[in-house]
Amino acid sequence: MNARPGTSEPRGRSAARGARVVLDEQGAVAEWSAQAQDLLGYPADEALGRPVTALLFAGERSASAGLTEETPSPGERLAARHRDGHLLDVRAQVRLLVQDGTVRWAVVLKAADGTDEQVLDTALLRALLTESPLGVQVLDPELRVVRMNLAGPGPRGVVGEEAIGRLAREVAPGVIDDAAEQVLRSVLETGEPVIDFEHTGRPPSDPDHDHTYSVTLLPLKDENGSVLGVCVTSQDASERHRAQARLALLVEAGTRIGTTLDVMTTAEELAVVSVPALADVVAVDVLDEVFHGEASPPGPVSAEALVRRAAFHVAQGLDVQPAYAPDELVPTHPSFFTACLTDLQPRLLRDLKADREWSTLEPHRADIVRRAGTHSMMVVPLTARGVMLGLASFYRTRTTDPFEEDDLALATELAARAAVCIDNARQYAREHSAALILQRSLLPQRLPAQNAVEVAWRHELSRNVGDWFDVIPLSGTRVALVVGHLAGQSMQAAADMGRLRSAINALAAQDLAPEELLTQLNDLVTGQADAQPPDDTSAGTPLAGVSCVYAVYDPISRRCTFARAGELAPVIIKPEGAVELPDVPFGPPLGRGRPPYETVEVELPVGSAIVLSTSSLVQGGDPQTVPAGLRQILASPHRPMEDTCDAVVRAHQDSGEDSITLLLARTKGLREGQVAAWTLPNDPAVVTTARTLARRQLANWSLEELEPTTELIVSELVTNAIRYASGPIHLRLIRDLTLICEVTDGSSTAPHLRHAYETDEGGRGLFLIAQLTRRWGTRYAGRGKTIWAEQALPLADHDQVEAA
């Protein structure tokens, strides 16, 4: 019958399926398909009803004889006449059709010069089982080999026809293990394929080495869906697997090597990453100068250069002792290893037993290598930017395969990455070392003389160079205590710290109150940051966020005033051992936020300890958060100050931190006999009285030789107070390391030092005071001011005061 319009198939697809013709019992054409028309050229109206013998010729055997079969023909070759007259060579497949008692025959014709399905199937089986580079095995339900590709990568040249009928595990015991059998039986039981899973084993063709296979398991089913067996196809993916492993190792090295700017740590990271992925044992040696931040010029270095062991790592379960321990100097006489220093070339020894020349140059290391069972070795130079930094040695002991050229290329890549990180650490160490030197030069070299507090300090830093402390003597025997923190590790941070310290000393010399000093210091920091160019963030940024605590202690009133910027907080230890935290109002870090800064004033008994530190000893403002061990250290009033500092630093380092600046000050008090004070009326007549009172006090202190100068100072200061201020006048003499004369009045007008002309009748008072005293100045209170002047004590009296 004719194919219905719109149902015709493409010619290629028709040829693949064949031309279908249906014959009646007499052999006449009952149905004629469009494919038959394409093949023989007859339209349906010409073919229907004609005997098939008019179209097909079987040579000696008639076509009708083929119609007596009750089963499909195996594909007999016949001659067919095309409508245009030429003959075609075709294959015919015949099948009996019985429907409602009517017998018919279905004939499928295909051009014999084409490729039919049977031929394709045969070619496919031939390709898979004899010519394919893939491993192909057909297993029955008992996992016996039914068919197999003897040219596959596993059995090639080893397994023959005798494998047919044997268990797969017997044929390839190094590949088919319990895990593989479990997967095979799962496919037999479920009928579900397993696609592209990786399995590692040792094939018969290479029983000494592991191979990784990409395996696909396909169930073989009959027409009823029953599983007849399993088709196993496998491809040796060892090279791909190794390439993926190398790539994964390089990716891991990129994330795990260089996490710190420390040479030893970076070397250890290289060793850890390489074991066991590349080697069983790895040793890393670095030039000694690199640890100090130095490096030779680009290019080779001398074989006599000092080399220090930086890292040594062994695979788990191996008992291998290093020839040289980490941080130990490695001898650098000419050897297989040091040759890399002179030519910057990596070296590979596949078989150490076969090549014994290297061992004669370094018998100590060779003996340890031999006793460890090492059989293969690589030595790779560590170079970055052309600069030689050291060597990395890779050993195989437990892994049976020797190192190959691709292993050497991988080790060279790992060493190159590690070398860049080591060089970065070297440059950081050089800059950090210079920053530490600069910092130490900017910190107090010795503490100034003062009698207000007993001081001990520690400055333990391995990273941060922006921490500082200061003890600044102030007028009236007072003292300022300062501890500050500026984050940073560079020379810029050290220089910024030095500028901050200089600014604080300059502001303290003006006798500013603590809150005013921090306010002005914040203005300086903010102004300096604002002065930087908009595109220069490196210069202005470090000064933002500076923490500082500033305290002023007066040994006469025994009161201490605290102010702070940032998180740093003082701790007070009373003489009986109680730990207290003064409630100092929080102020924004210098350079961030806006003042005001506020203060708190605390009265301290003599013998109290003031603890200022860059480390937060107290959390959340609660003294109870001080660790018990640290509390015990601080609450020991009779412990020497230096011992207390050492104990606090040790406790701090035990907690895992290595940077701390600690200032410990134990308060003193001036005795009553060291201070004399009077309140005088605002009357010119009291000038004589003031001189008399001062002269008598000096006599009591046996300081008669200072009477002339002291009388002049008292006279000039009291006279100025009477002339320019109102209200009572306070005169105070203090005998400490110096003789201090203070006059306090209610005026806030600042005195000015004048240089009077010869014709002027006055204006020389402060000039004379400046010439006759060590120093003088003015400090302001809430109301009024105090003008003070200091004179040096006679030598004997000075020594007596210091001893007291």
Architecture blueprint of SSEs:
Blueprint: H1 11-17, E1 19-23, E2 29-32, H2 34-40, H3 44-47, E3 56-57, E4 76-81, E5 87-99, E6 102-111, H4 117-131, E7 135-139, E8 145-148, H5 168-171, H6 178-190, E9 194-201, E10 211-221, E11 227-236, H7 238-256, H8 263-274, E12 281-287, H9 288-291, E13 307-314, E14 329-330, H10 339-343, E15 347-349, H11 357-361, H12 363-371, E16 376-384, E17 387-396, H13 405-442, E18 453-460, E19 467-473, E20 479-485, H14 491-508, H15 514-530, H16 537-540, E21 547-554, E22 559-565, E23 571-573, E24 579-580, E25 599-603, E26 609-613, H17 628-634, H18 641-654, E27 660-667, E28 675-680, H19 686-700, H20 707-724, E29 729-735, E30 738-745, H21 765-772, E31 775-780, E32 785-792, H22 795-803
Antiparallel strand pairs: 1-2, 1-6, 3-4, 4-5, 5-6, 7-8, 7-11, 9-10, 10-11, 12-13, 12-17, 13-14, 15-16, 16-17, 18-27, 19-20, 20-21, 21-22, 22-25, 23-24, 23-26, 26-27, 28-29, 29-30, 30-32, 31-32
